[in-house]
Task: inverse folding
């Protein structure tokens, strides 16, 4: 089933205009003018798809703020119907407008236009058109019309809207009024009803409006000059390249991108001139001159530059057609405002004597410059009209002659170095010096992490060097280099870098609060650190300075069981040699392997952040690896191989592992015991066996019973096990002798 949609619902509240007219006999020229007006109207509506509905004359939304962001979505139909049978048809027109952000939200515009007194006149809006939805983007549009019994009155088929030929012509909702000279007078209901009966008694006719836009355009085109139709959207071949380039460069305004061979008005030529000037200079014309007969912004801008003059009495005559000699004057003046004075020359045309005295010099200039040429027979035709495509071509010619392109940029920063968080400006000189567009199209930075640039203002982000580049609209470039310093000029140096320091493990000491000169008893050298660099930190603030220290772990005693937190002893002196910091700092993180990097931070409070400081490091002595390992205990093994058997199977202990490591926590060596062998066991485990650790006097100082579980035994029957956690890391005495032995569990 078709879905029926009617346009009256949404726009019932929209005011409907009125047209009062009398029947006339149409001359052929008037009919042709109507066809051309309708042709322009439909073409403009098609061109406006995607643009705000207020940009085209059929809009009924201009008084409603909430439609300001809507666009013309679709032209639905355009059909010619001669309602009053006067030889000049009316145009029935409909389109959809909708919210750009929501395709579901839309409004329907349905109108009837006529042509009267040299212009299109809107008879009514909100006509009842039935929209039949066929799925997808397919619709059918139908309108019913009634004719009066006297064949002189016509009503759009509805009790709400009608069009009449008499003085009571009225459109609107079903109110008892007639409208005359914009005044509303109440009409008796009986009179109104009688009129309505008379209007609807003549019969009905249904118009199928589907797919009539292009067919209507084709019909209209048959009554319009073929050359006008051919060049409505396509310029003449001789002008095509310049028109295409002008549109691509953004110089040809949208309202001049069609009807290329029609004469241009004075106001439209001003729009073209303003577009060229602002596009070429990169600057918007701010000042404006007032004329009493126009508020056109482009006319007022050209007036402010002195490019145009009025026609007298403060008027400009914006809608009059531009003459060729007027165009020559505007072009010459515009070239001067762009920075290029055209050379003086006398016009050399066969009709030069017909050129007005006020335009004679400028016509000679534009002819000599090759901007404007003559027409047939060597004439200039000074008072002749000037077409849109001619205007565009000469504007583009003048652009080539009058616009000086930039070739090179020279960038000079106000400061060669800036601090983090501060800014500097970059001055730009454009060469040659008479370049028309001296603006900058783009600013670029080689590293936005170091510095950003916006409109020629550079902001430092972090320490480093950055290249700032400017690009002109003509493609000319230039660069400069800026160095970003820390937020403060906090200068730090270090003595004897790189410097190698003993890395001491300091048992039971809290080093954060220890003094630089403190030396613990019996320290152990766990490895060596090499300090490679010191520099101010970016964390510096108004009351705190931070020195960052970097280096690597160059050696490590891998026999030490536990990882350790390395530290640095350091002093900081100011320029006078005064010690402003002396103490111990821990490194960030724990270096685990030779070659690992480390860092440390020295915090300085209440120091002069503009001063220079020197950092020195102290190297403490302690027991090195050789001294500690010389006192290592001796561990022997007895009782292997050992085979034990019971109901669970058989296990053979083939090897006892003894691993010694130095514990900085216990300040002694520790022993880890392990057992390796083969087994043939039951479902859960091998037979148990006993291990014992004896000192040199034969006293058992450690023992335990263990076995291999089924999951400890590999497919080939081998196993490797260690005693429980409580029997690992057994403390031993330095220089003592020990024996590990195994036996079967009794």
Result:
């Amino acid at each position: 089933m078709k879905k029926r949609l009617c346009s009256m619902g949404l726009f019932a509240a929209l005011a409907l205009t009125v047209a009062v007219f009398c029947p006339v006999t149409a001359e052929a020229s008037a009919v042709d003018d109507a066809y051309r007006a309708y042709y322009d109207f439909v073409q403009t509506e098609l061109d406006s798809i995607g643009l705000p509905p207020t940009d085209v004359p059929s809009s009924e939304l201009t008084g409603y703020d909430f439609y300001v962001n809507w666009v013309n979505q679709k032209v639905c139909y355009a059909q010619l119907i001669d309602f009053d049978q006067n030889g000049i048809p009316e145009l029935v027109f409909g389109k959809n407008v909708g919210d750009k952000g929501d395709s579901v939200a839309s409004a329907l515009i349905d109108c009837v236009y006529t042509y009267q007194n040299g212009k299109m006149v809107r008879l009514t809006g909100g006509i009842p058109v039935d929209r039949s939805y066929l799925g997808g983007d397919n619709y059918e549009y139908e309108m019913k019309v009634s004719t009066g019994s006297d064949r002189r009155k016509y009503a759009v088929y509805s009790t709400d809207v009608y069009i009449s030929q008499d003085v009571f012509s009225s459109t609107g909702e079903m109110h008892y009024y007639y409208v005359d000279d914009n005044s509303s007078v109440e009409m008796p209901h009986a009179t109104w009803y009688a009129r309505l009966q008379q209007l609807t008694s003549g019969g009905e006719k249904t118009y199928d409006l589907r797919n009539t836009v292009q067919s209507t355009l084709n019909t209209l085109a048959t009554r319009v000059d073929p050359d006008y139709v051919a060049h409505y959207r396509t310029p003449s071949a001789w002008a095509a390249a310049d028109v295409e380039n002008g549109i691509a460069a953004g110089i040809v305004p949208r309202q001049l991108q069609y009807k290329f061979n029609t004469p241009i008005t004075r106001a439209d030529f001003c729009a073209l001139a303003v577009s060229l000037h602002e596009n070429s200079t990169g600057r918007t014309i701010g000042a404006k001159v007032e004329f009493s007969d126009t508020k056109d912004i482009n006319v007022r801008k050209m007036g402010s530059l002195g490019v145009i003059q009025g026609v007298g009495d403060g008027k400009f005559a914006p809608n009059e057609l531009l003459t060729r000699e007027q165009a020559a004057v505007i072009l010459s003046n515009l070239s001067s405002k762009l920075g290029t004075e055209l050379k003086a020359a006398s016009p050399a045309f066969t009709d030069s004597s017909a050129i007005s005295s006020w335009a004679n010099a400028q016509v000679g200039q534009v002819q000599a410059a090759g901007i404007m040429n003559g027409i047939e027979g060597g004439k200039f035709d000074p008072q002749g009209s000037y077409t849109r495509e001619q205007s565009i071509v000469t504007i583009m010619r003048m652009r080539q002659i009058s616009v000086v392109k930039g070739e090179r940029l020279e960038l000079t920063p106000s400061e060669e170095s800036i601090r983090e968080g501060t800014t500097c400006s970059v001055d730009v000189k454009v060469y040659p010096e008479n370049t028309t567009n001296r603006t900058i199209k783009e600013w670029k930075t080689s590293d936005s992490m170091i510095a950003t640039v916006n409109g020629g203002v550079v902001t430092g982000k972090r320490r480093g060097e950055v290249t700032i580049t400017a690009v002109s609209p003509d493609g000319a470039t230039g660069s400069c280099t800026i160095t970003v310093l820390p937020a403060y000029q906090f200068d730090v140096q270090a003595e004897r870098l790189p410097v190698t320091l003993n890395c001491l493990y300091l048992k039971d000491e809290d080093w954060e609060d220890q003094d630089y000169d403190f030396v613990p008893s019996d320290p152990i050298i766990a490895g060596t650190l090499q300090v490679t660099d010191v520099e101010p930190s970016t964390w510096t603030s108004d009351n705190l300075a931070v020195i960052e220290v970097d280096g690597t772990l160059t050696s490590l005693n891998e026999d030490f069981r536990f990882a350790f937190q390395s530290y640095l002893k350091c002093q900081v002196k100011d320029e006078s040699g005064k010690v402003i910091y002396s103490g111990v700092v821990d490194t960030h993180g724990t270096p685990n392997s030779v070659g690992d990097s480390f860092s440390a931070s020295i915090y300085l409070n209440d120091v002069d952040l503009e001063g220079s400081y020197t950092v020195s490091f102290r190297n403490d002595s302690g027991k090195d690896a050789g001294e500690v390992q010389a006192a290592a205990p001796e561990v022997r093994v007895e009782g292997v191989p050992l085979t034990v058997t019971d109901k669970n199977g058989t296990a053979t202990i083939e090897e006892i592992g003894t691993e010694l490591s130095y514990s900085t926590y216990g300040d002694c060596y520790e022993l880890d015991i392990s057992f390796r062998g083969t087994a043939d066991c039951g479902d859960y485990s091998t037979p148990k066996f006993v291990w014992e650790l004896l000192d040199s006097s034969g006293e058992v100082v450690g023992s335990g019973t263990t076995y291999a579980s089924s999951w400890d035994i590999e497919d080939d029957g081998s196993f490797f096990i260690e005693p429980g956690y409580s029997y690992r890391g057994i403390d031993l005495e330095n220089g003592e002798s020990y024996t590990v032995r195994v036996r079967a569990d009794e």
About this structure: The radius of gyration is 49 Å. Residues 1-26, 165-181 have pLDDT under 50 and may be disordered. The first strand starts at residue 3 and ends at 6. The chain is about 15% helix and 35% strand.
